[in-house]
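Reminder to self: tokens first, then the designed residues, so the page reads top to bottom the way the pipeline ran.
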């Protein structure tokens, strides 16, 4: 009897390999069709200082009332907040996003109170000697009622991108792309149904048809942005796609898979749109923080010409006026030749008597010789112009000061929202304060008793001579107050320092400084004490951010309020200022990112600045500087 052999065991290895190949052959085309990743690069953008505050404004854009809400949250945040979207298992839904590092944290140490006398009864603001109707103060466009979604969207955009949101709204182009949008909608729907239809048996022809239509739509959209770019036969493609989508919808598919795919495509599209907005905001910030090429050329040409030209005759120099205390001395901190020239020209043009007017320009070593040559070539009536190398003076005479570089007035973007009325439109303000360099002005001008400090983005339209006759009493700094921001709203930034929570912030731009009272109250010494607590000399970003609390604390009891009509602020970011209000203001302050000498400046406000621009044909034509 023959023994029967046991049946051979079937090998499962080849069968699994074949199944794996079939499975991969189905996934590869799908991944090839839908895996469209946006190109991504990480930018090294420097985060800007930002303050998010609750609003207690119940009257106008420029006045505030009510008490400070103790439950308000205040923060200084970076330029963006990244949110991670949920990613499905389908690889086509993955979207790459650039990450932005958070800004350096600023410590909030305990500070002793500044060495100042007890505050006296509040001084009434000085009234500007110009007539102005009461209605002129309402210079903002009427507010449009927004729903909660619009308010939240606008708030998140301005918190992340700042004034770029305002600029993009004003420069938004009307696109004629109705057909292009329809093509995109068809493409999204076809992509959502394709994976489910491809799994159905007997639907191979429909699968191939969907695939072909998807590829044709992608090809057309890659070459078309508006309807005018579309080919003439696009209507036939739209009809074929509609037919394919209708057939796909008639199939029995899992609606959850289609819904999940649509959500993945939506998230991917939102991420891509946010990335392109971040790219645009980066280019915008690069444009507003970079000196124009023509201005750089002008500085270089002036510097070269300074060393080629013969020095001025000492007898013709107005140096004898520079240290006479009885003269009217204006101080300007600037690294921009044309900006400083406009400030001086507008001031003397509005002044009746300029014989005793002296302008002191504090600039850095790089622009010193360009400034010297420009103001030696151009005269401004009978006034005298003194160009000073700030960095050299500090380095030679005050080596103990750690901050030897020239810092222009610091600007902080303040976002104010109303906690009681969340649907009310939030507003963004740019608060400009003294930089670290301002606190050494009394040490530089030891012979002077009183000065007026002008920012280099100011245009003077009225005679400021009346400011020299002000009796500020025991006060040091005559400034326009900004009561939309109070110290109590900055308690997280100010730490445990003793301060008056109801004290208003103030703005630089046009400031009357009593140098004798400054020295009497030891303001510079108090500044150095606060700097050791708030500032970090090793980190420039932290050092510049410390300018806000230091400036507000140094003058909280030494501030003399000037009339609000003295300076109209916001011409560097606010598109809603009326022309008649700007023309009737004593001075215009272009605080914000959109400076008048930049191409990105607000066009309606540039004319006030260009009116006082000194035209030097030789150098400005060579460098193609547009007036």
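Designed residues (627 positions):
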């Amino acid at each position: 009897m023959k023994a029967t052999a046991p049946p051979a065991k079937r090998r499962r290895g080849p069968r699994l390999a074949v199944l794996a190949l079939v499975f991969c052959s189905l996934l590869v085309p799908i991944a090839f069709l839908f895996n469209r990743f946006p190109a991504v690069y990480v930018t090294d953008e420097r985060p800007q200082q930002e303050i998010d505050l609750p609003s207690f404004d119940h009257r106008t854009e420029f006045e505030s009332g009510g008490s400070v809400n103790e439950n308000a949250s205040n923060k200084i945040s970076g330029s963006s907040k990244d949110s991670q979207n949920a990613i499905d298992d389908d690889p086509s839904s993955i979207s790459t996003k650039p990450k932005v590092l958070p800004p350096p944290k600023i410590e909030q140490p305990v500070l002793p109170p500044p060495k100042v006398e007890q505050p006296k009864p509040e001084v009434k603001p000085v009234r500007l000697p110009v007539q102005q109707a009461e209605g002129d103060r309402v210079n903002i466009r009427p507010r449009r009622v927004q729903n909660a979604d619009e308010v939240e969207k606008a708030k998140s955009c301005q918190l992340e991108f700042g004034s770029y949101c305002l600029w993009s709204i004003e420069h938004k182009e009307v696109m004629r792309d109705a057909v292009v949008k329809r093509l995109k909608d068809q493409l999204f729907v076809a992509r959502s149904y394709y994976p489910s239809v491809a799994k159905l048996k007997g639907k191979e022809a429909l699968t191939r048809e969907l695939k072909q239509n998807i590829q044709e739509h992608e090809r057309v959209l890659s070459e078309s942005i508006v309807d005018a770019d579309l080919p003439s036969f696009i209507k036939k493609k739209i009809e074929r796609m509609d037919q394919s989508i209708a057939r796909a919808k008639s199939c029995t598919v899992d609606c959850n898979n289609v819904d999940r795919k649509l959500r993945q495509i939506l998230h991917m599209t939102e991420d891509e749109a946010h990335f392109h907005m971040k790219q645009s905001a980066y280019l915008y910030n690069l444009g507003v923080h970079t000196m124009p090429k023509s201005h750089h050329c002008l500085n270089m040409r002036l510097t070269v010409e300074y060393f080629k030209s013969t020095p001025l005759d000492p007898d013709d120099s107005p140096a004898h006026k520079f240290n006479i205390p009885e003269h009217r001395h204006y101080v300007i901190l600037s690294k921009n030749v044309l900006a400083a020239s406009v400030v001086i020209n507008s001031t003397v043009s509005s002044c009746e008597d300029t014989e005793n007017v002296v302008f002191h320009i504090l600039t850095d070593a790089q622009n010193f010789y360009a400034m010297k040559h420009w103001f030696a070539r151009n005269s401004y009536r009978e006034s005298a112009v003194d160009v000073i190398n700030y960095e050299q003076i500090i380095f030679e005479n005050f080596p103990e000061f750690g901050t030897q570089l020239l810092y222009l007035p610091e600007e902080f973007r303040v976002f104010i929202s109303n906690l009681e009325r969340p649907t009310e439109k939030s507003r963004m303000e740019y608060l400009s304060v003294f930089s670290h360099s301002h606190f050494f002005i009394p040490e530089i001008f030891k012979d002077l008793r009183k000065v007026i400090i002008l920012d280099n983005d100011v245009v003077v339209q009225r005679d400021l001579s009346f400011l020299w006759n002000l009796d500020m009493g025991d006060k040091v700094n005559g400034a326009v107050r900004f009561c939309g921001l109070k110290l109590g709203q900055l308690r997280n930034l100010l730490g445990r320092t003793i301060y008056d929570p109801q004290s208003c912030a103030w703005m630089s731009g046009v400031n009357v400084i009593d140098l004798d009272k400054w020295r009497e109250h030891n303001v510079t010494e108090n500044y150095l004490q606060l700097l050791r607590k708030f500032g970090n000399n090793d980190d420039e970003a932290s050092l510049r951010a410390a300018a806000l609390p230091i400036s507000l604390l140094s003058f909280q009891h030494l501030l003399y309020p000037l009339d609000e009509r003295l300076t109209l602020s916001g011409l560097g970011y606010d598109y809603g200022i009326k022309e008649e209000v700007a023309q009737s203001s004593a001075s215009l302050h272009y605080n914000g990112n959109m400076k008048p000498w930049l191409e990105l400046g607000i066009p309606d406000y540039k004319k006030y600045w260009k009116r006082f621009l000194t035209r030097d044909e030789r150098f400005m034509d060579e460098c193609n500087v547009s007036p």
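The CA atoms of residues 54 and 71 lie 9 Å apart.
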